[in-house]
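Slide 14.
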Amino acid sequence: MRFSPNLLEEILRRTDLVQLVGRRVKLTRKGRVMWGCCPFHKEKSPSFKVENERRTYHCFGCGTGGDAFKWLTETEGLTFPEAVEKLAGEAGVELPKWSPEDEAREERRKSLYEIVEAACAFFEEQLRTAGGAPAREYLQTRGLNGEAAKQFRLGYAPPNDALKEHLYKKNIPLDGMVAAGLVRPQDGDRSPRDFFFNRLMFPITDARGRVIAFGGRGLDPDAKPKYINTGETPLFSKGRLLYNFATARPAALQGGTIILAEGYM
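Slide 15: predicted structure.
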């Protein structure tokens, strides 16, 4: 959905930026401007200012700045439309009705989030079963215990189309499984198969921490390729996100540093 400049301006006008930023940053008034320590890098002396009159924030230390929409995308990982919707709701500004196409697209995305989350819960459960023993043993060889597996929601994808059958029992349609990248169509009249099987599973989340895809490491010594990822879906585009970004973001904001590494472990 596109938002008109007048609508965006109205939302910003009705938003108390000082109050919004103040939920995360301790601010002190100096004249007509509020000051605080920048949440985007480490500093001892406040160089981060917030002005309701201009409806902007700016840090003289690291140069970051923007309006209320930018604040939410930077601190909460929201997309721009999500930031607009959140601020409009808080400010009491009514947004224009979605077109039928927009509504259908959004409902489809919500459905895919639910399907992928159901798959993630299934993989987590399977890791704790007898069949998940090889995956647990592999994690031990990498120095990862049960707490780490729980924290990162690691799982196990069993063979024999176990995921497809599980999702069927939850009344999830096959086309939804395919759209989510969990089931792969086969040639001819052959039944679609699970995309991941006999693999250690790593959930991939978006900036808000919602599971949108998976990476799977083969447990069979002859598995090729060793790692596979969910293909491109309406939720997932591999080149547009970093694994574990949602978890790392708060620490990065506090410490001012992000360490990039190859792979999942």
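Speaker note: The chain has two domains: 5-91, 107-255.
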